Amino acid sequence: MALFRQVILTTIILAILLSLSSPAIAHKTRSRAAPVYYHVDLADLLDVAGPFQTFLGYLQKTSVIQTFQDQADNTKVGITMFVPRDSAFAELKKTRLTKGHIKSLLLYHALPKFYTA
């Protein structure tokens, strides 16, 4: 149950931070000027947001980070990521997963649309 609470809290934090980069809900200026969009580097965000080094390492090792970053940057709908803390990977490190298995698992940790908490 504690792990579930950690995942939910982490999801809420990342959803709030990612909302700054989502064009679908980006802040617009009050004048008739073009909308203002904010870019968030997902790797930098995961690096400073919490104990997500294991997840970030897997994202970079499999190049899934680029897929997620492209979704965040190049679509109007953004992305929602579910990021487990490093402690959640304790059991996973004992198993032998191929790079393909890890990539498939990582892709299940995101939705191709931004959802607010």
Describe the structure.
Keywords: Cell membrane, Glycoprotein, GPI-anchor, Lipoprotein, Membrane, Signal. By secondary structure, the chain is mainly α. It has one domain. The protein has 5 helices and 2 strands, in the order ααααβαβ. The chain has helices at 2-19, 42-49, 53-62, 64-74, 99-107; strands at residues 80-81, 110-111. The protein has a two-stranded antiparallel ribbon with strand order 1-2. α3 (53-62) crosses α5 (99-107). It is globular. Mean pLDDT is 78; it is low at 16-22 and 24-29.
List the helices and strands and how they pair.
Layout: H1 2-19, H2 42-49, H3 53-62, H4 64-74, E1 80-81, H5 99-107, E2 110-111
Helix pairs in contact: 3-5
